[in-house]
């Protein structure tokens, strides 16, 4: 475990409030056990888990950063923008979250309709909502429903057969634009950070185009310290934060204890000479 007296930041994690496996309180407890001293809960397009997480963080003596992971549409693709250090009472932020949740509900209803037809099931939306405990279940919950229904072997099979782009039950969602998300994050006093930039399958040129737009819209930071980066990926991200004068962030993108390679707080050090995004958080 980490030395409890040293600082250990993990600014990207998920709970049951979106698609994580642990309750917000259990997530915080696990982070504390792994030596994390500052944790951001960044559930997808929702702030619902933050009150429970804040209470648990106070009990465990770690700092909780109010966060969110916004899904955005840019250049006809989906990207994810983290909002960190947020005032969750911001009216502009709360309105955006409500709009994103409505988009998620509509997408989930359409995925359910398509699965009923493509997989020969009935009431897929309703059954998946029961599994997730939410009216806006994401694709991992539909994968679980397919697995329980005996239509697929596992989650990967579910995505490959039905749920990924190009398959019969894939549904594109009318997310907000990148500039809208950044504006809403800033209205709430937060920092806007590009999440897992290596995870979109972009060429160097395309990543630089994305970050150029992000910077033009007023974006603040780039996630650069994550588990499992290759040396080439790390070198590209180092080139990018320097070229676009971006702050840097560190996050595991933790979802479940079953993902052994994504342990909370087990992150490489930040690049020498970089400015951590947490230096700009509202305290």
Automatic annotation (TrEMBL):
- Which Pfam families did the record assign? PHP
Q: Where is the Polymerase/histidinol phosphatase N-terminal domain?
A: 9-74
Alphabetized SUPFAM superfamilies for the sequence: PHP domain-like
The record's GO molecular-function terms, alphabetically, read:
5'-3' DNA exonuclease activity; 5'-3' RNA exonuclease activity
| Top-rank taxon, per record | Bacteria
Q: What is this protein called?
A: PHP domain-containing protein
Top-level taxonomy = Bacteria, Pseudomonadati, Pseudomonadota, Gammaproteobacteria, Oceanospirillales
């Amino acid at each position: 475990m980490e030395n409890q007296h040293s600082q250990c930041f993990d600014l990207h994690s998920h709970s049951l409030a979106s698609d994580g496996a642990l309750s917000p309180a259990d997530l915080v407890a696990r982070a504390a056990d792994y030596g994390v001293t500052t944790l951001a809960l960044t559930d997808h397009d929702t702030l619902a888990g933050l009150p429970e997480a804040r209470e648990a963080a106070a009990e465990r003596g770690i700092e909780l950063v109010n966060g969110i992971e916004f899904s955005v549409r840019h250049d006809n693709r989906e990207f994810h923008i983290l909002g960190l250090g947020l005032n969750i009472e911001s009216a502009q932020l709360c309105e955006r979250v409500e709009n994103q949740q409505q988009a998620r509900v509509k997408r989930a209803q359409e995925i359910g309709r398509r699965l009923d037809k493509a997989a020969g099931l009935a009431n897929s939306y309703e059954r998946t909502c029961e599994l997730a405990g939410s009216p806006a279940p994401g694709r991992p919950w539909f994968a679980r429903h397919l697995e329980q229904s005996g239509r697929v072997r596992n989650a990967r099979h579910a995505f490959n057969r039905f749920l990924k782009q190009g398959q019969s039950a894939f549904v594109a969602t009318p997310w907000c634009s990148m500039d809208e998300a950044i504006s809403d994050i800033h209205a709430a006093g937060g920092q806007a950070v590009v999440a897992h930039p290596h995870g979109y399958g972009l060429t160097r040129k395309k990543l630089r185009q994305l970050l150029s737009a992000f910077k033009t819209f007023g974006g603040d930071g780039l996630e650069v310290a994550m588990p499992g980066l290759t040396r080439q990926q790390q070198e590209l991200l180092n080139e990018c934060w320097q070229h676009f004068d971006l702050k840097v962030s560190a996050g595991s993108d933790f979802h479940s204890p079953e993902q052994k390679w994504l342990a909370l707080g087990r992150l490489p050090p930040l690049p020498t000479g970089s400015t951590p995004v947490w230096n700009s958080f509202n305290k």
